[in-house]
Structure formats: C-alpha cells, structure tokens
Give the backbone structure.
Amino acid sequence: MDMTLKVTSALSDPTRYSIYLFISERKQEVSVQDIAEEFHIHPNVARLHLAKLEEIRVLQSEYVKTGKGGRPGKRYIPSEEVVQLSFPPRDFRLLSSLTIASLAKLGEEGFKALVETGYEYGKSLVNPYLQSHNLSLIELSQAEKLHILSEISTSIGFTLDESMTDADQIKFHYDHCPFNENAQLEPMFICGLHNALLKGMFETLYSVEEFKQEENMINDCSTCRYHVIVTN
C-alpha cells in the first residue's frame, strides 16, 4: 500500500508525469540539464522530479563520464521493472503468466490459438478508432494510416518508430517489448502473439503483400524490426 501511495502521489504532478512520458517515449538517456531545458524549469526542480520518478522505480539512473573531465554525470533511462497498480489489489501479471503457461502446454495447438486471438484482436482495434474519429478507410492517405497505426500501437504499449516509408514499403521498429516479462518465459509464444497482433492491424488498413520481422530482441537485437510491403 505504501508503494501504491508513492506511485499515485508522484505521477499526480502534471509536470512530473509529462517528464516520465518524455523519457519513456524518447528511449534515450537524459540528464538533469536535458529535462530542465525541455520543460523550462530550474535544474534543481528537474533533479527533484527525476529523483521522485526513480524512487517509484519507473526510471533508473547511472553515472556516465561526460568526456569533459570532472565527476561523471547522472543519466536517467526508463526502468525495465514493471510498476502495477490495481484497486482492489490484483496480480494480473500472475494471471497472464498462468494463461501463457497453459497454452504452452498445449504445444502447437496452443500457439495457433494464441496467434489467431492476437490477429483478431489487432484487427478489432482499428474499426472502433475509425468510427470514433469519423474516418473512412477508403479515404485515408498512407500518412494518415501510419498515424492511426502509431496511435493504436502506443495505446497498447508499442511505440513504433518508422525508419522508411514509400508508396509500397514500410519499415518500423520498437525498442521496448510491452510484455517483456512473459516473453522471457515463453519467447516464441509471445513473439508470435505480437507479430499476429501487429499484422492484424496492418491488414485491416492495407492490402499487405508481405509482413516480415527482420530483427528480434529475443535474439539479442536492440529492437524488434519489421519490413512490410503493401499494395495500397
């Protein structure tokens, strides 16, 4: 309960919450000075906000040599630790771990069921978004489709970064697996689920000729990287 109160108290401050979002989306280490300049606040205030975010374990820090002599500077990055809040207390991570373990025991049939569920869920995310924003699929430009994919992906924990887009090719990657804990236990199942979910989203918005994962964090790559060929 003490940790729950600390987390809710720390993130209730609008500036502090904005700082956390900025760092988590940037995915690069930042200094106190970076935050002070970005949010137009005094470095001492920035340091206090960062310390509070580190205290609730949504950020972690390390000392890095600046190359300018003197003491190493402190740098902050998003924490790999998951902070979960629920009222009343519920351990949904345990539920998800048990569910994945149960499907894994079914072998190929379990994997197939998980992939089919992920694909259908990915497709189901798109139409409600279009309806809520009064958008027609046939009238969307590629840039608008990419924006929709990015927004929906962010809402479920994937922050997609585009590296190349043209008339018929899209390359994108993400750097933080939103279900990293489960992926470490059953990597093939979780990766299959993620691929199917993203593919379902793409195939609802585009006619997809090829959907290929080129790199995978499970294989010690820095990102999960995809190459998609579309016909519209």
